[in-house]
Amino acid sequence: MRIASRQLNVLFRLPVCFVLCWLATACAPIKPVRVAAVALTVEDVGRAAAKQTDPVLVREGTPAYLMLLDGLLESYPENTRLLTAACQAYATYASSFVREEEQERIALLQRRAMHYGFRSLSGKLDFPRAASGSLEDFTAGLERFDRKDVPALFWTATAWAGWVGSNIGSVEAMADLPFLEAVIRRILELDESYYYGGPHLLMGIFLAAKPAAMGGSLPQAKVHFDRAFAHGGDKVLMTKVYYAQYYARGMRDRELFERTLREVQAASADDPPEMALGNIMAKGKANRLLERTEEYFAGVLE
Q1: Cβ pair 286, 258 in contact under 8 A
Q2: Cys bridge to 113: 47, 90, 150, 273, which one at CB 3.0-4.6 A?
Q3: For residue 204, is pLDDT > 60?
């Protein structure tokens, strides 16, 4: 059964207790079959949500969707597609719908997203153990993954980066940086064009946000942002927002910062349609960044 966009409202408004009772009362012999069938619709729900133009609807409905995923994974714990969907959903919810001042909650949600992401990759590599071992062994282990693993690798890296970003100053988070970079580089080797150049966007942010003393490089970050734009990232307005936030601010280039964010404000949100929700969220973030221009560029000569 395929779930169309018009059915999203119904699904998101299902009471969580009903969803959990439905899973709990399924007869033991048929439950795996039922969960497997529902698993096929999860990606459709994500795609339908991405086309929504009402962020409030999605924000209010996502917690029920997250609990649905949790419940499905209780019954089908090794389904890679479900695990990847849960990783993406938790990471996206944490970065898009939780207030920035709620850093502790964001960190907890991103940690859960990481947990699901690591599990989605553990069929080929004991990911949690490898990520706490030597970098050399971890990098060698990443060679086991191929192009079909890119979605799981990409969303795991996204969640991992979100967790590190919400734990700046943590020794554990800083120790994870070279391992996270190794994952991003492996994704770039496998499919640099995935999700409108998303791997290049991740690397651009990574290199721009990291201090030069730790291997960060604004010139190298610029190369990756440009590659993201070349792979269609100019249609993904959040790419421009992050370019302004990390590269333009890092370069102390106020004109570039303001010009880029005003381009986001003026752009169409539903081109392409599957990025409508993300583009609307990007416009909101652009507005908030522009409101803080004076703060960001205090002392910079025009």
Answers
A1: no
A2: 90
A3: yes
